[in-house]
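Page 42, continued from yesterday. The earlier attempt failed because a stray header line got pasted into the input along with the sequence. Redoing it now with the clean sequence only.
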Amino acid sequence: MTTPSPWTHVTQAAAALAAGMGVGRFVYTPILPLMHTQAGLSAGAGANLATANYVGYLVGALAGILAPALVRSRAVLRGSLIVLAGTLAAMPATHSTAVWAVLRLTAGTASALIFVVAAGSLLHHLREHPPHLSGWAFGGVGAGIALSGLLVLVLRSVSDWRTAWWASAALATVLTAAAWNLRPEDPASTLMPGSTAKARTHRWFSALFIAYTLEGVGYIVAGTFLVAAIGQGSPGWVGSGAWVLVGLAAVPSAALWARLGRRRPRTDLLLAALLVQAVGIALPALVGGVATALVSAVLFGATFLGISTLALATGAQLRFPRSVALLTAGYSVGQIIGPLVVAPLLRHGYQQALLLAALVVLAAAVAAGVLRIGFPHHMVVVRPTAPGRRRESTEDAGARDPLAPHSAD
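This time it went through. Structure tokens are written below.
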């Protein structure tokens, strides 16, 4: 029997992530300005809808943690993809903010379940392949952002917000078809645990947890309001065009950061990525103009997936119990807090919100700087060789696979 090409699996996982995250979660960003001007949505209500989506994401993420069987279920993947497309198509059917909130909360839950199934599938089926393959699969998030942003950019001049939602639902449906046969993690599989040696890593994990939670707060403000902020001081096409650039920059970012992680300590890369992202978020609030907006988009798109990859891999390297679960929970809570914190500032436009978000990401960088102090870069790792046998290695945990932290959990 011929072994299927790993690129087939990469493509299917990328399509699932593009639908679940790039479209289902982030298409709201370029549609938000249209809903402000055409559907009468206030800035505060827009922030509340964003929060509803992030609460739903936390619910889905916790479900995947508490019920591991969900991660290995093709039915959960397919059902979540269908529900997600349905919530997108239903958005234009009402003007009720309460109904919109329920739809966005449901979409967030579906997005999280799609993510955990796709991530588990990648870790299981691509475990023995080069790390950049998983990175390219996670680039599907960026591809979904770029495709949905391009769709809204084209439609904004010829149609309205309703059509934008219906078109995004159609795009999610096409991506669902491409991801339909994605093989989840084998239900019978068991992941080889890491070394049972108890390392005193609490201080470093605490710094990592704080950094990643703050990143959740800061990045989501830009991820929600960047298009609207740019659109306030630039021609209408610039905001949507910038969001397309965010997606395009994100496509190769996880794979590139994974490669860099084999040459430089992840703690150094995490600090650098946070500093670059802070600059990218602050730029549109400090300097106007089309060029600034586009540079901001590239810097943000090139870092937000990389930061997640680096943070989770660092948690695995520390072998802290349930590191992925804890980091994901902190990140999700940060995403809920972000829009709520900046909501009072939105009455005066988006500049203050972006500046606050940049400061929060800078605070995350400070925590990442603390993380670097005395960090145990080389820890003994137990790697599987053959069934029933294990071998030890002193390479960085997760260095072979940028997503190894999930398997370590």
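Notes: Residues 135 and 255 are 4 Å apart (CA to CA).
Reminder to self: strip header lines before submitting.
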